[in-house]
Amino acid sequence: MGRSYQARATAGAFPSYSRAEAQADLALHVLSVCGALAGGLWLLLGPGRAQDLETWLCLLVYALALLGGLLASAACSTPPARPSTR
């Protein structure tokens, strides 16, 4: 069995993930961001159109906050770029 996440991560260092873990993480982040975009647009242009301006603005804030949270999660879990070995 491999080392645990905490054992692999050192203070201030980005944890090292296997290639499969990184690909799975990327795929889930792409799906979640696309889902948030589609859901936010549906919410604003579907049921939101029948609401008054104040309610529509609340839905807009909700959709943007959801998208922002997912983008922040993706940015936080993306490993730093490795220097070129050329």
Distance between termini? Answer: 35 Å
Taken in chain order, the helices and strands follow as HHH
The residue fraction in helices comes out at: 55-70%
Oligomer status = single chain
How would you sum up the major sheet? none
- Compute the number of helices: 3
Which ranges are low-confidence, i.e. pLDDT below 50, for 5 or more consecutive residues?
A: none
Judged by helices, strands and strand pairing, the structural class is mainly alpha
Work out the radius of gyration.
Answer: 19 Å
Strand coverage percent: under 5%
- Indicate the overall shape: elongated
Arithmetic mean of pLDDT: 83
Number of strands: 0
Descriptive report:
The structure is a single chain. The chain is an all-alpha fold and 86 residues long. The protein has a domain at 18-77. Helix content is 65%, strand content 0%. The protein is elongated.
Structural features:
mainly alpha; 3 helices; 86 residues
In short:
It is built from three helices and no strands. With 86 residues, the protein is mainly alpha-helical.
Write the SSE topology.
Layout (H helix, E strand, L loop, with lengths): L4 H4 L10 H27 L7 H25 L9
Helix pairs in contact: 2-3
